[in-house]
Every structure is written in C-alpha cells, then in structure tokens.
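Response to reviewer comment R2.3. The reviewers asked that we include at least one raw input/output pair. We reproduce the pair for ABC-2 type transport system ATP-binding protein here without editing.
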Amino acid sequence: MSDMVQTNSQEMITLSHISKKYQTEPALRDISFRVGKGEILGFLGPSGAGKTTTIKILTGQLRQTSGDAYILGRNTKEIDSSIYEQIGIVTDNSGIYENMTVYDNLKYFARILNVDQGRIEELLKRAGLWEHRKKQAGKLSKGQTQRLVLMRSVLHQPQILFLDEPTSGLDPSTAQEIHGLLKEQRDKGMAIFLTTHNMEEAAKLCDRVALLNDGNIVEIGTPREICLKYNTKKHYRILLKNQEEFVLEHSGENIKKIAAYMSDGELEVIHSCEPTLEDVFLAVTGRELR
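Raw output as returned:
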C-alpha cells in the first residue's frame, strides 16, 4: 500500500473505520472523522474513552487493529520520524528540562528543529514568559510551565498540533490565556486536535467536537449544532426587574406572557435553556463525564 492518500488539500487528519483492541478489550470501535486546516476539533470523553489511544495512532506511536489513519496525506502505519518536523504534541508526559533556563529550553529545541532563534523571543513574549527567560524552568508555576510546553510545541510552526488535556488543573485565567494562544495558531491555518473531558472548555474553543464513549463516537458536529439537536424541551429562564426569577416552557400562552413582560418594561433578563455539551453527553450515553 502506498503511504500517501488522495485527500482534500485542506484535510490534515483522516481516520477511516479505526478500531483498536488491547488483547480482547476494545479501546476504539470503528471511528471515522476528519480534521481540516485551520480547525480545532475537540475529542471529548471521560478517562478511558479512547482519546489518548487515538492520538498515539495518529502520531505513529501505536498501531491500530483495523482501519486506516492518515496525517498530512501519509498513512500512519508507514510514517517515520520526519513527521515530527510537521506536528507538535502536548501531553501529560511533555516535560521540560528543569535545570535549564526558560530561554535555554526553547533554544535547545530550536537547534534540533533548525528554527531561527529570533522566534524564541517572539514566543516567550507572546506567552508572558519573557521576563522569566533567565529563570530555571523547574521554578515556574504550573500555568507558566504549561505555557512553556505549548510554546515549545509550536516553536517550529507545525501544521498540526495535538493537545491531550492541555489546561487540566490550571486556573481559569491561565486557561483563558492558553485558549487565546490556540485560537491564534488556528487562525494562522494550524489544525488542532484537542482531547479533553472539559465540555465547557470545548464549547468555547472548538470549531467542531466529537463525543467519545467506550470507544465509539456518539455525536460529531459544531457545539451549537449538537446542543440544538438535543434541545427537545424548549424553555426560557426569566428574570424580572423585581428580581423574581422562574422558568417558562415554550408554549403560545407563555410567549404571550414574555411579550407582555417586555411591553410593560418588566423583563430584566431572558435566556434560552438549550442543553450544554455535558447535558447532551449524559442524554446520549447515560453517564456523566467525571
């Protein structure tokens, strides 16, 4: 079999009927999806759902039991180490050299990847780490360390970035900074494959999401599409100016009530109550993410 496949020029990742078994236990069950250039795909599910296994198959670290996977048009069964010049990976095992300075950590990888050292200053300033450039990396906070690991992964401007739970355990402010960095890379054309069990994060960050449960993709689409698909019982949360708060089901009578509140100037806030991605996951699988 040739190691190339004819795909749309905008397709960066293609999985076709991928299954993976560990001895007799299935980890992935006939999954298929594609990730395009300039797209963030969220691969969402609880621990043990098969998220990390998928990344390992896509990056050539693990061989699938059946099906075909392609990255940048190359069959993952036949890729070699040169693929790492075109991809970046951030996982729980993505460590740093703690006894080296922040700057020297990136300088070391810049030499390996043949990257102009001028890019180091650019990235450290963008990540808010420039003032810490002479500090030993082992003395950084968890959030600073995660930003350094992320900057290292995009140092060589890869076409695809794999992120395995990139903001797990981070404070909201640091997580938001990382989201901004990822969106910038996406807007420059990078394809980003993000695994997480944080549905709120995925809804904010991802262009599309795939919900994974016991090795099966149970839904795939934009966060909005998926949530609206399962919005079968429409209702509205109402807050009046007198601070009275209640929920109204969607009906002709209640629409008239809402219109009257608006006409009389009594309405302070109205929210539609479509389900969250976590609500959808529970509805589809019967299980929570935690």
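The chain is about 30% helix and 30% strand. Confidence is low (pLDDT under 50) at residues 1-8. Further pairs are available on request from the corresponding author.
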